[in-house]
């Protein structure tokens, strides 16, 4: 029995020594830290695809200026990983709403990526007052038939705002001559783009000298299109269940005053918060509706939310 105890003690001593040797080898010295940094974290130069296009219009990558600008947007958006993941997640939720409306209007599907760079697919509000997923200004919204006031702001209605964006883009394409210019015109305005084209005596977005924001605008759209269309290629790894879900809804017509949306929501088995999530265009907890206009309120189908009794 004594030899067993001695053997166990020797094994214990050897294990302890091995532990200390391992600990010393793994100690965070400057040299080890540098080795780990090099081996565990790598940033790669990206190869700009030679066949990039937007709305069927080729990007002239043979031009070194265009190549550099495209490379910049691919790098910035690939290595801003947290933001990239959010775009993948939100796209699964909002693209099913946006895509059929674009198709109905004959607007190229690529314009859904314009909404991505405009708002990150959120109901954002810019310092200039542009609002909603499509970042529509108050005057533009009203010009194209949206109701915009403190009680109802239809710029926050994704479906109606997408309809307006389509009408604007079609008009811009007709005025400026190409879908690429129409996209740039969404940022700089139709009149502004037409003036710059005339002043510089060119006919292509890629030949224009523009300010920082509009000069990057189309390249950002194309970069997001490329990355969101090829997640594996750009190092984004996720499962289908990691993405946000599109929650189907049905519409309830309302042509009267609603004095309390909390009570209204309970009548459909949801609460006020859930009602607002699906109808952010309802800006107050009531609907004034003095004109008895008919509104359509989205109610999520049963089973997608569970509320406390």
Automatic annotation (TrEMBL):
Sorted UniProt keywords: Signal
Source organism, top-level taxon: Bacteria
Cleavable signal peptide: 1-23
SUPFAM superfamilies: Lysozyme-like
Gene3D superfamilies registered for this protein in UniProt: 1.10.530.10
Keyword Signal: yes
UniProt family annotation: Belongs to the transglycosylase Slt family.
Residue span(s) of domain Transglycosylase SLT: 101-201
Protein name: Lytic transglycosylase domain-containing protein
InterPro entries: Lysozyme-like_dom_sf, Transglycosylase_SLT_dom_1
């Amino acid at each position: 029995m004594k030899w067993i105890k001695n053997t166990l003690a020797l094994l214990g001593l050897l294990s302890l020594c091995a532990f200390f040797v391992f600990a010393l080898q793994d100690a965070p010295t400057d040299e080890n830290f540098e080795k780990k940094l090099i081996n565990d974290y790598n940033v790669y130069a990206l190869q700009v695809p030679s066949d990039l296009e937007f709305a069927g219009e080729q990007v002239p990558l043979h031009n070194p200026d265009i190549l550099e600008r495209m490379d910049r947007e691919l790098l910035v958006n690939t290595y801003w990983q947290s933001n990239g993941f959010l775009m993948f997640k939100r796209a699964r939720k909002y693209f099913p709403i946006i895509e059929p409306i674009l198709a109905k209007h004959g607007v190229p599907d690529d314009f859904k990526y314009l909404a991505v760079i405009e708002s990150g697919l959120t109901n954002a509000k810019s310092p200039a007052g542009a609002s909603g997923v499509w970042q529509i200004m108050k005057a533009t919204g009203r010009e194209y038939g949206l109701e915009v006031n403190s009680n109802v702001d239809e710029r926050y209605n994704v479906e109606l705002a997408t309809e307006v964006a389509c009408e604007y883009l079609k008009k811009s394409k007709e005025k400026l001559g190409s879908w690429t210019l129409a996209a740039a015109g969404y940022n700089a305005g139709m009149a502004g783009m037409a003036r710059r084209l005339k002043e510089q005596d060119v006919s292509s977005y890629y030949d224009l000298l523009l300010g920082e924001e509009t000069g990057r605008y189309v390249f950002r759209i194309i970069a997001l299109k490329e990355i969101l269309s090829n997640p594996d290629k750009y190092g984004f790894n996720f499962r289908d269940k990691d993405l946000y879900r599109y929650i189907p809804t049905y519409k309830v017509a309302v042509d009267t005053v609603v004095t309390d949306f909390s009570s209204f929501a309970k009548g459909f088995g949801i609460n006020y918060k859930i009602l607002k999530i699906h109808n952010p265009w309802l800006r107050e907890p009531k609907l004034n509706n003095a004109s008895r206009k008919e509104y359509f309120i989205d109610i999520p189908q049963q089973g997608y939310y569970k509320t406390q009794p």
